[in-house]
Specification:
The structure is a single chain. The chain has about 130 residues and is α+β, with helices and mostly antiparallel strands. It has one domain: Nuclear Transport Factor 2, Chain: A. It has helices at about 5-15, 20, 40-55, 85-95; strands at about 25-35, 35-40, 55-65, 70-80, 105-120, 120-130. A hairpin with a 2-residue loop joins strand 5 and strand 6 (about 120-130).
């Protein structure tokens, strides 16, 4: 995957176009971050619909390397609370490992994001805070 293709993927993510994001994924995939693991499109859509109802999130790429098999990047994930996201709401939704976020609270989180590709589609994505 080259940078232009990744930028199209990222534009879908930043626009909350979950179907557009998932079009870059293979039929079978694994997405892992923050002690969460998703293996179906429905899980990913449910998670991001919940999360983005509570906060604004965007990713800015600061370094990128990609080829036909892998993409590795460094980026800044910016999150800002739109409404209070409580520990209780996170637990009830099934995401107790995530941190609560108050309305107006902003975090900028440096991350490493790594993708494995097969036939031009993402088969594994993993994120780690750096």
């Amino acid at each position: 995957m080259n940078r232009a293709t990744y930028d199209r993927y990222l534009a879908c993510f930043n626009a909350r176009d979950y179907d557009g994001v998932l079009a870059f994924y293979a039929e079978e995939f694994v997405l892992e971050f923050a002690a969460l693991r998703f293996t179906t499109r429905e899980q990913v859509k449910r998670f991001y619909a919940f999360l983005h109802a509570h906060l604004d999130e965007s990713i800015q790429v600061t370094a990128f390397v990609g080829d036909a098999q892998f993409v590795a990047l460094e980026g800044i994930v910016r999150i800002e609370g739109k409404v209070d996201l409580t520990a209780e709401a996170l637990a009830e939704a099934g995401y107790p490992g995530l941190f609560p976020l108050a309305k107006g609270q902003v975090f900028q989180i440096p991350q490493f994001i790594h993708y494995h590709l097969r036939d031009g589609r993402i088969v594994r994505a993993a994120c780690a805070v750096c």
